[in-house]
Design the sequence.
């Protein structure tokens, strides 16, 4: 990725025709668009309806709404919330957005954490967002419920990878992948299989769960090679940066989901609801 491209992505939320980045933390030294620890939040413009890929952690809805508005698209058209995997930094706003927008939640099965889902993804099935089709594929490894989504725009294959592929990053090195933790069901064998599968998709654009996207096929390819190298080295324990033990306990996480989020519900729904236009 050239400096020019990075600069463009930092200033401008449009990644390519019909896809925008509307939320992002400061992972890898990129300036946060929403909250510090947020995942990347993508907005898909399907014409008659919109969808969000992941939705970040709590307390960022003002900024998120502003970022969506700055694309010129109407937040009320968001009718689908697509979840790459059920980690707090990707899903904590799900309930609020679902409630405020009347959107349907789509996610994978098998998550360690609780998340009320409207529909579960089926491996290889297609989801429509307006006139765009997204193929959904099961990619366990980082978590058992991991899914990636692939769509084609202007003949280009675009793959949303969640944390399965974070890939080459300017400040954080090559081939970054999601963290491992036995508590949330990470599995090295499955992870390598999932990476090989995504590599075989041969994407033109990879949109990861954190950090900056890969915007050319050449970069996607080399980044995938580096991801696989990293995981293949994992067994040697040389790559200690990949093994970050997290001190979450289940009760603490559940508390974040239920108590902390719900307390803010009424307040937030008021703000996320777009003002009603007077005729
Ligand atoms: Zn994750």
Sequence:
């Amino acid at each position: 990725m050239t400096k020019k491209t990075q600069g463009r992505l930092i200033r401008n939320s449009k990644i390519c025709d019909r896809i925008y980045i509307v939320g992002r933390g400061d992972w890898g030294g990129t300036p946060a668009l929403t909250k510090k620890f947020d995942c990347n939040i993508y907005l898909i413009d399907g014409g008659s309806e919109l969808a969000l890929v992941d939705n970040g952690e709590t307390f960022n809805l003002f900024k998120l709404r502003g970022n969506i508005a700055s694309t010129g698209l109407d937040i009320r058209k968001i009718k689908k919330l697509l979840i790459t995997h059920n980690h707090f930094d990707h899903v904590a706003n799900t309930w609020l957005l679902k409630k405020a927008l009347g959107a349907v939640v789509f996610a994978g099965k098998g998550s360690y954490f609780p998340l009320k889902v409207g529909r579960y993804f089926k491996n290889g099935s297609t989801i429509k967002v307006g006139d765009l089709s997204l193929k959904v594929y099961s990619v366990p490894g980082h978590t058992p419920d991991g899914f990636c989504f692939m769509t084609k725009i202007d003949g280009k294959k675009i793959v949303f990878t969640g944390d399965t592929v974070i890939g080459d990053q300017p400040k954080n090195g090559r081939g970054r992948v999601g963290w491992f933790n036995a508590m949330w069901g990470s599995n090295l064998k499955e992870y390598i299989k999932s990476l090989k599968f995504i590599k075989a998709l041969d994407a033109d654009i990879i949109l990861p769960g954190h950090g900056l996207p890969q915007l050319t096929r050449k970069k996607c390819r080399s980044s995938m090679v580096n991801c696989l190298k990293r995981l293949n080295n994992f067994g040697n324990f040389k790559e200690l940066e990949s093994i970050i033990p997290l001190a979450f306990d289940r009760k603490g996480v559940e508390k974040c989901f239920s108590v902390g989020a719900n307390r803010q519900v009424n307040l937030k729904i008021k703000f996320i609801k777009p003002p009603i236009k007077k005729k």
